[in-house]
Amino acid sequence: MAFGPQPSDIPLIRRALAVYKVSSVLTGTFLLGLVVMMVTRYGFGVDIEFNGASGQLLALTDPDAITGVNVSILLLAVHGWLYVLYLACDFLLWRLLRWPFWKFVWIAMGGIVPLLSFFFERQVPRQIEAIIADLEARTAASDSAAGTGAGVSEVSA
């Protein structure tokens, strides 16, 4: 068996890539929100509160005085689950494309390093589309060579 993606994997790769694109943008967006939350929590000692007792829609409130929805905790939880989805897509692409393990780890950093997922959302699909195009071209070339070879032998016989 050849090392690398197989033509039969192309539909799965395209589906995983589509989910990866969405998950990378969502994960990156919530990671930026998480950075804001960490600055407010650890820099100023307050959490982000939604619809609290202050009457404001969003307010910076002492964590012990929060009566509304604690947006800081919400950002933590949502980013965590979105990162799980991001990692699952990363793993699936890594497995289907048969990339080296370091590439899986490198792409996984996109959900941890702020703004990196936005860079990967542009870079990774380009690489994968190039791999798919090359795979389809090689498959078409081998199919036409096999078809031409069969046609020549039938005509000459």
Q: Describe the main β-sheet briefly.
A: 3 strands, antiparallel
Radius of gyration over alpha carbons? 24 Å
**Poorly predicted spans:** 150-157
Q: Give helix and strand order, one letter per element, not per position.
A: HEEEHHH
Helix content: over 70%
> What is the number of helices?
4
* Class from helix and strand fractions: mainly alpha
Count of domain modules: 1
Structure at a glance:
Keywords: Cell membrane, Membrane, Transmembrane, Transmembrane helix. By secondary structure, this protein is mainly alpha-helical. Helices cover 71% and strands 6% of the residues.
Characterization of the model:
The protein has one domain (about 5-140). It is mainly alpha-helical. The model is unreliable at about 150-155 (pLDDT under 50). It has a three-stranded antiparallel sheet with strand order 2-1-3. α1 runs antiparallel to α4. It has helices at about 10-45, 70-95, 100-110, 115-155; strands at about 45-50, 60, 70. The protein contains four helices and three strands. Keywords: Cell membrane, Membrane, Transmembrane, Transmembrane helix.
What descriptive keywords fit this protein?
mainly alpha, disordered C terminus, Integral membrane protein, 157 residues
Topology, element by element:
Elements: H1 10-44, E1 47-50, E2 58-61, E3 69-70, H2 71-97, H3 101-108, H4 116-156
Antiparallel strand pairs: 1-2, 1-3
Helix pairs in contact: 1-2, 1-4, 2-3
